[in-house]
Structures are given as structure tokens and as C-alpha cells.
Amino acid sequence: MTDILILTHADFCPPGHLATVLDREQRDFTVLRTDLGELDGYDLDRPKAVAIMGGPMSVNDPLPWIGAEIAALRHFIARDVPLIGHCLGGQLLARALGASVHRMPYTEIGWQPLEKRALAGDNPWLEHLPREFSIYQWHSDTFDLPEGAQWLMDSPWCPNQGFSWGDKVLALQGHPEMTEELVRGWLTDWAHLLDETQASQQARARMLDDLPSKVTALNQVAEGFYRRWLNLAFG
To answer: What secondary structure does DSSP assign to 119-138, as a single string?
Structure first.
């Protein structure tokens, strides 16, 4: 058991670049598959920082472990633990904070342009970012903003791309943790889910074009988020 806990929900949605950052910082971490019941019996008072990764399911699916994970997130919020949610993880945080999560009429996939909200320009979670930047996306659900949250960023296809709540919770709709390996793997294993007739989805070839440069830029976006998350937990 370690001070850093990472909750995952599928073998193809690992911590990705987050794990690289933690290894580089020589910080031990624990990864649990909550969909396999690995959160059961875990000491929720132990973690000092928690990350919640993505997954193919919906927060609204009738899966017994989803309620248990939301209850755990509420416990972490009550403890004032720094939390960062990625895609499904962001949606789980929204639900834990009382907001709705619902299906969009399309799927947002690819390197999508995000823009910081004008009123969020001085939010410390965003201080490393330019006004416009890209994050890799793959989702059909979106969250509403919880009461008391600050709306941080939007995209042309999904207005609610991120929010902060208090000073220690960051929920993201996108996937800043992506690596080259993950992008290529998803576009190979889940190619049957792509529909280039949807304007909200990039073509596969376009997603792969100049991939190393795109991932390098994404790593910089992610590292700013992870740096603040770790600083809040460990100073």
C-alpha cells in the first residue's frame, strides 16, 4: 500500500504517461482495478493523492462497483485528498459531487482543440497552458458541472471539458495520459468503433499523422496537471 492510489477500469486504460511521471519522480504508487473488485477492503484513509483513469463503461451503467467507487471518491473528497479524473474518471468525480452524466448525440474522438474559459484564466490548474491547446478524446458521455465547480475549458464538440472543485479536485473529459503506444493500440483494437462520417471524429490517418509531436505536446499538458496534483499532496 502506497500514498498514491490510481483507480483503473480496463486493461487498455492504464495510467499511461502518469505512470511515467511518477516513475521519473521516484514515487511509488498502487494501481487498483475497481471493476474487478480490487477496491474492496482497501484502506480509504491511506492515500494522499488519488487519480481516476478512463474506461469504456458509463457512470450510468448498472454495475455494482460503480456505486462503491463513487462512495470511495466522496470519502476522499471529505478527506480533502487531491484528486484528478481522466474521462470516465472525471465523470465519476462529477457524479460523486452530485452532478449528472449523460449521453451526447455523437462520439468525440481524436485530437480536439480545447480553449480555456475566460473566467478560469487564473485557475492554478491551468497556469501552464496557453489559451488554446489539444487533448486526445474518446467519449460518448459528458458531465454537467457540480454545484460550486469552476468551469475550466471547452471544445467545439463538448462544452464541459474540465472543472475544478475546491482547490484539490480536477475533473477532465479528455485523456492527457495518452502515449504513442496507447493511441496506436486504441486505433487498432477499437477501429470498428470509428465513424468518419461523424464530424466530431477525426479520421484515423489524421490522428496518427505526426503522432510523436502530438504526444510530446500532450505530455507537457499532462505534466502540468500532475505537477500541481503532486504538489498539493506532498508539497
So the answer is: GGTT-GGGTTS-SEEEEEEE
Q: Give me the helix-helix angle, 211-234 and 180-189, nearest 10°.
A: 120
CB neighbour class for 224 (10 Å; exposed up to 12, middle 13-18, buried from 19): middle
Rounded Cα–Cα distance for residues 6 and 19 (Å): 9
Region label for 87, one of left (φ > 0), alpha (ψ between -120 and 50) or beta (otherwise):
left
pTM, rounded to two decimals: 0.97
pLDDT of residue 121 exceeding 90, the answer is no
Residue 80 has what pLDDT?
98
Pairing of strands 162-165, 49-52: unpaired
pLDDT of 70 higher than 80: yes
Cβ atoms of residues 96 and 70 within 8 Å? yes
* Torsion angle defined by CA atoms of residues 22, 27, 32 and 33, in that order, rounded to the nearest 10 degrees: 10
| Dihedral angle, C-alpha 165, 171, 173, 178, nearest 10 ° | 150
